[in-house]
Amino acid sequence: MPYIAAIDQGTTTTRFILTDLEGKVVAHAQYEHEQIMPRQGWVEHDPVEIWRNTRRAAGEAMASQDITEEDIVALGVTNQRETAVVWERETGKPVYNAIVWQDARTNHDGDPTAFQGKTGLLHNSYPAGPKWAWILDNVPGARQRAEEGELLAGTIDTWLIWNLTGGARGDDGHEAVHVTDVTNASRTLLMDLETLQWDDELCREVGVPRGMLPEIRASISEFGVVRRRGTLSGVPITGVLGDQQAALFGQGCLDRGDAKMTYGTGLFMLLNTGGTPQRSEHGMLTTVAYQIEGEAPVYALEGSVAVGGSLIQWLRDQLGVLGSAAESEILAAQVDNSAGVVIVPAFSGLFAPRWRTDARGVITGLTRYTDRRHIARAALEATCFQTCEVVRAMERDAGTGIEELRVDGGMTDNKLLMQLQADLLDARVTRPANIETTVMGAASAAGIGAGLIEAPLPLGTTLTWHSTMAGPERDRLIARWDDAVERSLGLG
Ligand code: ADP
């Protein structure tokens, strides 16, 4: 029986799965790694720990089902995007911890849209390029060593593939492969979205020597073969995608107008815009969705909301209003509406599409009648309203209507949330049985890259929610949300 393997190297855990060619996951294992926070706003990971966890998870999953390398025909990789590593070519030793995407140290005061035309990104604290530059500027001697070719830069996909294909020792006389895929490269601020190559001018401006950057390949192509010694020996790596792109691909959003929303700690939406890198007028990012070797790239618009499931966590952990995240559904279902309560969770300002750093959280419409059931319902509605804003802004940017939103992430367990979303968005909401779309997307990309399958792996039976809300009622609720948002401004 041939199996496809996939690594999902995420912000908190490293997961490894083995799936058959029908999308049935036969084995999995995962390990958490340490979140290193040397000071306020800084978040780091130990790249060596991540590489060790990757091998442990792979070995453990394979052993659990007595599956050997001979049974595994392809390996896919998906990863936390924008997290930046710099290491020594000779020894494989990182010169500094990985600087994580959430880390704010590279925030700057300049115009955030300065590079948006070429890269599709906002120049804020997220992209990987300025994080590499920070390491070169702050580790003694690093910049000079980078210019002399002694150091290599990579996002986590690059770091793992370099180690998998041999690391400092190489493999049977072959050097380890130093590569990345177009989706990860599109998160660096150094890649031109049209040419899909590193751009000399951007590299100069951001301060990253081009010689230390990996080669950019299509997401579905040959990246290399796992080194002979160790786990997964001889398995070809044939699919690599950043995590949000992997979820989009895993959800089968391969056509223009297909969109997915991931409801996790934050909310991440991607809309497939086909062969055009659609520029945003509404604060969305433009990014590469995926590219199959020999074919033109497919682009996406991306919008994110900072506070999604974390509002539920806040109600549970800080206010003690909920005993568990799942209780939000039980409580909210006990009332027909929020009795006029609106929560705007602008804890750190409002992101897409409003971009208001001066906003702070507010709860409006409280009366003596309000109880925790209304608060729970308002929290779920807040997630839906924020999603609606991103969807509507993307529709305006892309010039297309979104009739169906494919969803995944931990919050989609909440069926009431899904119904509210369909109601408030006035669109179909569909959720596959297997919501591990990120790792399945990586497995799908690898399977297609190895010629084993032709389309993304099936994710089981889909549940669908349709809008049951009358138009005037929706308009009334959205107007009340807009009013509450107005009241959240200027508080920060
Ligand atoms: P991440 O990948 O960002 O860590 P997950 O996809 O695992 O997030 O989702 C976890 C988030 O979903 C948490 O913020 C949690 O509060 C929220 N969550 C989990 N289950 C529910 C539920 N039944 N109803 C509402 N929110 C939930």
TrEMBL record:
<keyword id="KW-0808">Transferase</keyword>
<protein>
    <recommendedName>
        <fullName>glycerol kinase</fullName>
        <ecNumber>2.7.1.30</ecNumber>
    </recommendedName>
</protein>
<dbReference type="GO" id="GO:0006072">
    <property type="term" value="P:glycerol-3-phosphate metabolic process"/>
</dbReference>
<dbReference type="InterPro" id="IPR018484">
    <property type="entry name" value="FGGY_N"/>
</dbReference>
<dbReference type="GO" id="GO:0005829">
    <property type="term" value="C:cytosol"/>
</dbReference>
<dbReference type="GO" id="GO:0005524">
    <property type="term" value="F:ATP binding"/>
</dbReference>
<keyword id="KW-0547">Nucleotide-binding</keyword>
<dbReference type="InterPro" id="IPR018485">
    <property type="entry name" value="FGGY_C"/>
</dbReference>
<dbReference type="GO" id="GO:0019563">
    <property type="term" value="P:glycerol catabolic process"/>
</dbReference>
<dbReference type="InterPro" id="IPR000577">
    <property type="entry name" value="Carb_kinase_FGGY"/>
</dbReference>
<dbReference type="Pfam" id="PF00370">
    <property type="entry name" value="FGGY_N"/>
</dbReference>
<dbReference type="InterPro" id="IPR043129">
    <property type="entry name" value="ATPase_NBD"/>
</dbReference>
<dbReference type="InterPro" id="IPR005999">
    <property type="entry name" value="Glycerol_kin"/>
</dbReference>
<comment type="function">
    <text>Key enzyme in the regulation of glycerol uptake and metabolism. Catalyzes the phosphorylation of glycerol to yield sn-glycerol 3-phosphate.</text>
</comment>
<dbReference type="GO" id="GO:0004370">
    <property type="term" value="F:glycerol kinase activity"/>
</dbReference>
<keyword id="KW-0418">Kinase</keyword>
<comment type="similarity">
    <text>Belongs to the FGGY kinase family.</text>
</comment>
<dbReference type="InterPro" id="IPR018483">
    <property type="entry name" value="Carb_kinase_FGGY_CS"/>
</dbReference>
<keyword id="KW-0319">Glycerol metabolism</keyword>
<keyword id="KW-0067">ATP-binding</keyword>
<comment type="pathway">
    <text>Polyol metabolism; glycerol degradation via glycerol kinase pathway; sn-glycerol 3-phosphate from glycerol: step 1/1.</text>
</comment>
<dbReference type="Pfam" id="PF02782">
    <property type="entry name" value="FGGY_C"/>
</dbReference>
